[in-house]
TrEMBL record, chains A, B:
Gene3D superfamilies documented for this protein: Dihydrofolate Reductase, subunit A
Pfam family, one: RibD_C
Protein name per the record: Dihydrofolate reductase family protein
Limits of the Bacterial bifunctional deaminase-reductase C-terminal domain: 8-191
Amino acid sequence: MSDVRVHNFSISLDGFATGAGQAPDAPFGHAGERLHEWMFATRFWHEMGGGRGGSGGADHAFAAMHGPGIGAEIMGAGKFGPPGWQDDPDYKGAWGANPPFHTPVFVLAHRPRPSIEMEGGTTFHFLDASPAEALKRAREAAGGQDVRLGGGPSVIRDFLTEGLVDHMHVVQVPILLGRGVRLWDGLESLEDAYNIEAVSTPSGVTHLTFTAKSR
Amino acid sequence: MSDVRVHNFSISLDGFATGAGQAPDAPFGHAGERLHEWMFATRFWHEMGGGRGGSGGADHAFAAMHGPGIGAEIMGAGKFGPPGWQDDPDYKGAWGANPPFHTPVFVLAHRPRPSIEMEGGTTFHFLDASPAEALKRAREAAGGQDVRLGGGPSVIRDFLTEGLVDHMHVVQVPILLGRGVRLWDGLESLEDAYNIEAVSTPSGVTHLTFTAKSR
């Protein structure tokens, strides 16, 4: 059975994965880019943009686990676009013509629409489905490879609650956002189901990995 | 000017410093002792109990900063005793005849009572005062030494909000409590006032230190 994996999912010290006030020019609300600066500094990120440079240390090693072995992604409607995108029939996601997924991507949306084939191997499919149903579809599309769960926080919470996540990499950034959407709400005793490791790196972030005990 | 310091203040991954359901036999509610096991394993803790043994590594090094240079402590009513203690005129705190403070201790209580002199140098004083007023009293009693802010979470939050904390050591334990009292609520942008370091240790906890930039 292929794994369900979460990667590079960044939160503040107070647990917010998204700030308040999300908008087209502020996909993370008042958090801005502060949750992801650690990643922008890595070689992984530089090379994903087609360039060179970036740090090659522990932050890079964690970040680079994002791609290998992934055959499909599942994401929430809030990651696909800003509030209101479902009213625009021509909206094609927040990433331009060649999105950085290069696999089928299943977008959980209450109002499904026809699939959209993008450049570079990404095809967006739209599903109004439970986590288990969406995972079944994504696993079929992944051809034996793993399924990445791309967020946002409420989607990850829903999959965790149903015990569907095998590997989760959370990056805790030393800022306090105070408001937004929390990752951790309603996940009491999650540690019973996971082996948890914590590693702080010189950039100041702490990488938390959750490995399912049932794996 | 002497410093105000917080030490060994333990929280869950989801930010709770106290679980739900505090009671005389469960001072941390459903959290039990799980937030403090990292500390019980240290030489600091063993020696505080008059014994020997315990780990001498990073967890001990952090934990042992608790005592030196402290001339007084301020704590909230919820740390002094379980809900209802203010109805018992003979209540003398949760630590027995020789409490582990050995300094004046100022207990923030809405219903002040006469001071209580205990064995070993601890004297409990009871104040209905603002953070700044309580700190003024504690500084006078500390004789030029630092003041420890002992918690609980809402007291620490109140002092942080007023910019009165110079050094804070928070220990993040890899469990999810789901409910209780959070440390971080309402502290947006706290990082603007502090240099923050994170260090994970082999026991699995992550030590976060906050050093006031104004210090």
